[in-house]
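Sanity check. The docking grid for zinc ion depends on where the pocket ends up, so I'm generating a full predicted complex first rather than guessing from homology. Inputs follow.
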Amino acid sequence: MGKTMKLLENLQVIDLKLDAWHGEKNGLLGETTALEGQLETERGSIAAKQAEMSEVEQGKRELEENLAAETDNIARSEVRLKDIKTQKEYQAVSKEISAAKKITAELEEQVLQKISRMDELRSEIEAMEANLKLLEENISSRKTEILDKIEKLEESIHADVAERDSMIKGIQPALLSRYTKLRERRQGLAVVEAKNGSCLGCNMNLPPQVYNNLFSTENLITCPHCQRMLFLRRQDDDIQ
Ligand SMILES: [Zn+2]
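Predicted complex below; grid placement will be based on this.
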């Protein structure tokens, strides 16, 4: 069992390394997604501003149409004024004209407000577009870095998987499956050292009989608390 435990211990070193590689790769993929999301958000904000701009432009066009209609009305009333015979009618038409002039003044004011809002929006959109361009450049170069790192990670993963494949040929399938299940349940650690009467996986004291068995038997010994497979680190292991 000593030799098998050594194999499992080495297998676990590779598996922990693979876990770390995969974790790093997932982290990088997550970062890419977050960066894309950031771009989407910025593009969405610009689109919203552009939609507001179209709305303001449309409003301005409607105001200008009303203004043109009112101006025509005034011009027609002023022509009518010349042919009016009675004082009463003259006063009525004059009143209409001054009311229409009041309306045109209000419409002109509203058109000016729309123009000033359009100026604001135009400069906001320009600033946002400049920002977006910078962001796109930064994100694009960061993504190149990320893809480069992922490629290197995949090379490492590939090499380790190949080493792992040849390593597991020396381990009994039943033991390997036990090891795999233990790793799933025990945060990646299936094989742990027993030292000074304790399991270094869960840090609990081992019953003396269990600990002593590690010295005297070649059978597989597991921790009664965390079920991990135990091994003793012998002096010649450290010298290697
Ligand atoms: Zn334990």
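Relevant for the grid: Helices lie at 2-83, 87-167, 173-185, 208-216, 235-239.
Also worth noting: The mean pLDDT is 94.
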